[in-house]
Automatic annotation (TrEMBL):
Domain Peptidase M12B residues, every copy: 117-286
KW Disulfide bond (keyword) present: yes
Keywords carried by this UniProt record: Disulfide bond, Integrin, Metal-binding, Zinc
Name the UniProt record assigns to this protein: Disintegrin and metalloproteinase domain-containing protein 12
Species classification: Eukaryota, Metazoa, Chordata, Craniata, Vertebrata
Binding-site list for Zn(2+): H253, H257, H263
Keyword Ribonucleoprotein belongs to the record: no
Species whose genome carries this gene: Myotis davidii
Pfam families: Reprolysin (PF01421)
C-alpha cells in the first residue's frame, strides 16, 4: 500500500517507507452484482478483510490451523474491547463548523468536494503495541498497513484518499510518554510529532496505534478541525480488537475529527441508516464496531478549509507516483 521496511534495516524503530509495489497484497473492490457494495482485503497472510453490502458488514478471516479455509461473520461479532471516543462534543464557535459558509465560498466548496484529495498519513505503533503483537516487527508493520488500507476505503466515498507514507514501530522504548490517561498521551504524541517526526518526514497527519488500555471507555481521541496543522494534526487509537478492523474504524473516526467532523447525534440532526447494534456509522460517539463510511453531510465547510489545504496533487512515495499503485483493485477471479 505504501510503507515497507528498507532492505536490511537494523533499527526497527526507524520510520520506514519504500516502493509501494514491494510485497503488494492490499486490495479494494466490490461484490459483483451488488450495487453500493465495497471490499477492502489483504492477501498477505491468507485472505482477510471487510466486505460490505446492503448496509451490512462482514469480516473475512482465515480459519485457525486450516489451509485455504475461511470464515465469514457479521462485523458486530468481532472480538474486542468496545468503547467510545474521548473527544468532547464540539461547542458552537470557530471549531464547530456550524452554519453555512459565506456565499462567495459555496462554489469553491462544491469544487473542493468534487476534487480528489490525498492525505499523507504516518502511523506509529507504541512499544506496548509491539509487545502485544509478539514483538514481531513484520507482523506489526503488516497490521498497520492493513489498518490504513481499510481507512482509505472508508473515505473513498468522500473523494478522499488516505495515503500511507510511513510507519514507525517503537520496538525498543516509547519516544514520548504514553500511558492510560488518553488526554495526556494525545498531547505528548502531538508534541513529539511536531518536534521530532515532521522535521524528518513530510506528512499531513499522524496517528498513534497503542497497545495501552486507556482509562474509562475511551478508545480514541483527536483534536477537532486540525488537519494539516503542525501542532494538532493527529490522534491516538487504542488497538482494542483482535482484528485490525477495530483499530481501523477508530482511526477513521479520529481522522474525521481532524477533518472537522463532529459526532453524529440526534441533537445535530444526524441520522444513521445502520443501527448501533449493527455497527452504526463512523462518527457515532460510541465507536468500535463502526463500519459504515462517514456521511458527506458531516463534512461541510470544515473539509473545504482543511482538506482543501492538504495534498491536491498525487503524492509520491520514495520518488514514485502512488496513484493507482498504493492499492490495487480486486482481480476478477476474486470478486465472486
Amino acid at each position: 500500500m505504501a510503507a515497507a521496511l528498507a532492505p536490511g534495516a537494523r533499527v526497527p524503530a526507524e520510520l520506514v517507507a519504500g516502493d509501494p509495489n514491494e510485497g503488494h497484497c492490499y486490495y479494494h473492490g466490490h461484490v459483483q452484482g451488488r450495487p453500493g457494495s465495497a471490499a477492502s482485503l489483504s492477501t498477505c497472510s491468507g485472505l482477510r478483510g471487510l466486505i460490505t453490502f446492503e448496509n451490512k458488514s462482514y469480516v473475512l478471516e482465515p480459519m485457525d490451523n486450516v489451509t485455504d479455509r475461511y470464515k465469514l461473520f457479521a462485523a458486530e461479532a468481532l472480538n474486542g474491547v468496545w468503547g467510545s471516543c474521548g473527544s468532547p462534543p464540539s461547542a458552537s464557535g470557530p471549531t464547530a463548523g456550524g452554519g453555512r459558509p459565506p456565499p462567495s465560498r459555496t462554489r469553491h466548496k462544491r469544487e473542493t468536494l468534487q476534487m480528489t484529495k490525498y492525505v499523507e498519513l504516518v502511523i506509529v505503533a507504541d512499544n506496548r503495541e509491539f509487545q502485544r503483537q509478539g514483538k514481531d516487527l513484520g507482523k506489526v508493520k503488516q497490521r498497520l498497513i492493513e489498518i490504513a488500507n481499510h481507512v482509505d476505503k472508508f473515505y473513498r466515498p468522500l473523494n478522499i484518499r488516505i495515503v500511507l507514507v510511513g510507519v514507525e514501530v517503537w520496538s525498543d522504548i516509547d519516544k514520548c510518554p504514553i500511558g492510560q490517561d488518553p488526554f495526556a498521551s494525545l498531547h505528548e504524541f502531538l508534541d513529539w510529532r511536531k518536534a521530532k517526526l515532521l522535521p524528518r518526514k513530510s506528512h499531513d497527519n499522524a496517528q498513534l496505534v497503542s497497545g495501552v488500555y486507556f482509562q474509562g471507555t475511551t478508545i480514541g481521541m483527536a483534536p477537532i478541525m486540525s488537519m494539516c496543522t503542525a501542532e494538532q494534526s493527529g490522534g491516538i487509537v487504542m488497538d482494542h480488537s483482535d482484528s485490525p478492523l477495530g483499530a481501523a474504524v477508530t482511526l477513521a473516526h479520529e481522522l474525521g475529527h481532524n477533518f472537522g467532523m463532529n459526532h453524529d447525534t440526534l441533537e445535530r440532526g444526524c441520522s444513521c441508516r445502520t443501527a448501533p447494534d449493527k455497527g452504526g456509522c463512523i462518527m457515532n460517539p460510541s465507536t468500535g464496531q463502526v463500519l459504515a463510511p462517514p456521511a458527506a453531510s458531516g463534512v461541510g465547510p470544515q473539509l473545504d478549509r482543511r482538506v482543501g489545504n492538504s495534498e491536491q496533487e498525487t503524492p509520491r512515495v520514495s520518488g514514485q507516483s502512488t496513484r493507482g499503485s498504493f492499492q490495487k483493485e480486486i482481480p476478477p477471479e476474486m470478486q465472486e
